[in-house]
Amino acid sequence: MLILGFQKTTLLDYPGKLASIIFTGGCNLRCPYCQNSGLAFDPDPEKTNAFSEEEVLSHLKKRRGMLEGLVITGGEPTLQKDLIPFIEKVRAIGLLIKLDTNGTNPALLKELLGVKLLDYVAMDIKQSQDNYPAACGLSGSAAASLTEKVMESVSILLNCSIDYEFRTTIVSELFKDEDLPKIASMIKGAKRYFIQGFLESPGVPEGCAFSSPSPEKMHEYEKIMKSYLPETEVSLRGL
Fold first, then answer.
1. Which domain holds residue 17?
2. 234 with 196: CB under 8 angstroms?
3. Rg (the chain; Cα; Å)
4. Domains in the chain: how many in total?
5. What are the C-alpha distances in Å from 103 to residues 56, 110, 122, 161, 215?
6. Taking the chain, what is the end-to-end CA distance rounded to the nearest angstrom?
7. What order of strands is seen across the sheet that includes strand 232-235?
């Protein structure tokens, strides 16, 4: 596992649970507003504080009985070839697993659910289907099967038995009001959906000129989405 970030305690990232969170390196998307572009686009352990599996597992063992879960985020965690054996080691400690994913690896998602290694999944919905590749910074062959894979992952989650959520980061310059009903149709029947405003941070790519809608606009979007997905909530703090 390429672990480029490790937060030992979080009350925000796993709903209702006290957890630790790890950030894996590398991503197959190039979203121009990425909050973690350093570890996603240029996953160089020499430029970051890399953590070994042993270091993470040692902490989790020491906090056994206090921690309830581990959040695995990134980057895109499903790119890690040893994700399954790592999760099995965490499972052996007795912790729940929450996976954050962009949904581009439905085969692995299905496998993880099939062997009951996940307890909660948070999947990003970047945009409506027709605008998906552009929102992810992809074109040509890299974009060809993107939406198909994302929709397969959506279907897997809609039909799974564990807790899950879909979430969208709203960037003013990349969204129009008419995009939201299209997104709602993509995830019709979802248990839980979050919209969150873009948040400027040191991890955003250099030269990024994006902004978040106003709080009033975000609540307007929430109202729109609630008419399609009653379990819609808004977060103004971004990612």
1. 3-235
2. yes
3. 17
4. 1
5. 25, 11, 9, 17, 28
6. 23
7. 3-10, 19-24, 69-73, 96-101, 120-124, 163-170, 193-197, 232-235
Q: How many CA within 13 A on the CB side of residue 35? A: 17
Mean pLDDT by runs of 10 across the 239 residues of the chain is 94 95 94 84 71 96 96 96 98 98 98 98 96 91 90 98 96 92 96 90 68 91 94 71
Count of positions (residues) in the chain: 239
Q: Are 71 and 17 in contact (CB under 8 A)?
A: no
Question: 100 - beta bridge partners?
Answer: 122
Find out whether 145 and 187 touch, Cβ atoms under 8 Å.
Answer: no
In angstroms, the CA 44 to CA 46 distance is 5
Q: With residue 223 as reference, give the H or E element that holds it.
A: helix 215-226
Q: Which two tokens stand for residue 234?
A: 């808004």
| pTM over the 0.85 mark | yes
pLDDT at 83: 98
Q: What pLDDT was estimated at residue 92?
A: 97
CB atoms within 10 A of CB 71: 23
What tokens does 29 get?
Answer: 């998307």
- CATH number (domain holding residue 176): 3.20.20.70
